[in-house]
């Protein structure tokens, strides 16, 4: 692997004869068995990504979940993850497999890296918008309820537009139209800015939910708190699965043989990339465990009767009707008893 041009080019370029990769700071060597094992592991993750996100997309589009506009962004995230499973990861598996006996085609390598950057940043920006939307819902609930759906569609377009910009930058860098420093600095700035925004958004949500004690909005606060916890888990997993790979990129960027004499096993690089791809199948699992409506729709998709509790709105409606019926019955009984007592009193008077 030659990383001298950019630290983001962890592209597994190898010499035909030695199967040895080099970088400015390290030298790696992988056996055919190790390469085969990694390919099997990546293929397993790819199968989970495709199955999980296919189910998620079907549930979001076929059920009533899209009535909640927040789920527009979750659907966008599932589509981005599906693209990872259908495009980026299969290309990466091929990328790793050809290390056994041949070089990676430069054209194939450039296409793969462009698509990998595009799908990766689509996920990053989707998670960023999700966090900001949740903060908006908690901090300004009245404004949030009156926000037009067109605003959500514009934000979804922004997600894909920005991801496309970074994909184009990667392609231009491949053909030397963009210098390495500009590409590296822009991608690192976008990644870490997104991470900071996501973390700050959820910290603000936690503070707002903790100190907001208006009884009239108690149910809304509880609902937002649960959803914020779910999305925080998604974000935490995103950080854990993506950060190692980009930290390695920083190491490759600034570490030179003169000041970084220690060698890094290339299995560490492949493991960091493995974690990154795992993020794309973990998200649907989180949905099924933490979002009740998603779990109900999932069970219905497979033809199972759900034993879930009715929604709070339906429970409130039933309770209201029950109380109204009891009140009418009590009033009716009271009226009948009053008439009966009046009749008895009049009879006694006449007697």
Distance between the ends: 114 Å
Task: Please give the share of residues in helix.
Answer: over 70%
Q: How many extended strands? A: 2
Overall mean confidence score, pLDDT: 75
Radius of gyration: 29 Å
How many H/I helices?
10
Contiguous uncertain segments of 5+ residues: 1-27, 308-320, 339-344, 346-351
**Structural class, from helix and strand content?**
mainly alpha
Strand content: under 5%
Shape: globular
Order of helices and strands: EEHHHHHHHHHH
- In the sheet with the most strands, the strands line up as 1-2
Characterize the main sheet: 2 strands, antiparallel
- State the assembly state of the protein chains: single chain
Organism: Exaiptasia diaphana (Tropical sea anemone)
Subcellular location: Cell membrane
Transmembrane segments: 35-60, 72-93, 113-132, 152-175, 187-207, 227-248
Keywords: Cell membrane, G-protein coupled receptor, Glycoprotein, Membrane, Receptor, Transducer, Transmembrane, Transmembrane helix
What can you see in these coordinates?
The chain is mainly α. The protein is built from ten helices and two strands; from the N terminus they run E-E-H-H-H-H-H-H-H-H-H-H. The protein has a two-stranded antiparallel ribbon. The radius of gyration is 29 Å and the shape is globular. The protein starts with 19 loop residues before the first strand and ends with a helix. The N terminus and C terminus are likely disordered. It is found in: Cell membrane. One of its GO terms (molecular function) is G protein-coupled receptor activity.
């Amino acid at each position: 692997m030659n990383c001298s041009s950019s630290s983001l080019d962890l592209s597994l370029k190898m010499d035909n004869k030695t199967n040895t990769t080099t970088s400015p700071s390290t030298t790696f060597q992988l056996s055919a068995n190790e390469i085969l094992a990694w390919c099997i592991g990546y293929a397993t993750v790819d199968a989970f990504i495709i199955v999980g996100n296919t189910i998620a997309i079907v549930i979001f589009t076929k059920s009533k979940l899209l009535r909640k506009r927040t789920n527009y962004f979750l659907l966008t995230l599932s589509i981005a993850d599906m693209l990872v499973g259908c495009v980026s990861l299969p290309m990466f598996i091929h990328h790793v497999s050809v290390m056994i006996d041949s070089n990676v085609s430069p054209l194939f390598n450039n296409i793969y890296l462009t698509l990998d950057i595009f799908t990766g940043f689509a996920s990053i920006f989707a998670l960023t918008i999700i966090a900001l939307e949740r903060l908006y819902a908690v901090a300004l609930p009245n404004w949030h309820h009156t926000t037009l759906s067109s605003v959500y569609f514009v934000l979804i377009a922004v997600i894909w537009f920005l991801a496309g910009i970074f994909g184009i930058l990667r392609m231009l860098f491949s053909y030397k139209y963009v210098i390495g420093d500009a590409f590296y600095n822009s991608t690192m700035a976008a990644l870490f800015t997104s991470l900071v925004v996501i973390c700050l958004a959820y910290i603000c949500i936690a503070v707002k939910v903790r100190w907001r004690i208006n009884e009239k909005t108690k149910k809304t606060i509880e609902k937002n708190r649960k959803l914020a916890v779910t999305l925080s888990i998604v974000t935490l997993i995103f950080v854990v699965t993506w950060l190692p790979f980009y930290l390695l990129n920083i190491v490759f960027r600034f570490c030179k043989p003169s000041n970084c004499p220690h060698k890094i096993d290339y299995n560490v690089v492949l493991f960091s990339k493995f974690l990154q791809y795992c993020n794309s199948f973990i998200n649907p699992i989180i949905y099924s465990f933490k979002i009740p409506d998603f779990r109900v729709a999932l069970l219905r998709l497979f033809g199972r009767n759900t034993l879930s509790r009715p929604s709070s709105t339906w429970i409130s409606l039933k309770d209201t009707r029950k109380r109204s019926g009891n009140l009418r019955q009590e009033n009716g009984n009271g009226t009948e008893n009053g008439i009966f007592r009046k009749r008895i009193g009049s009879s006694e008077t006449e007697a």
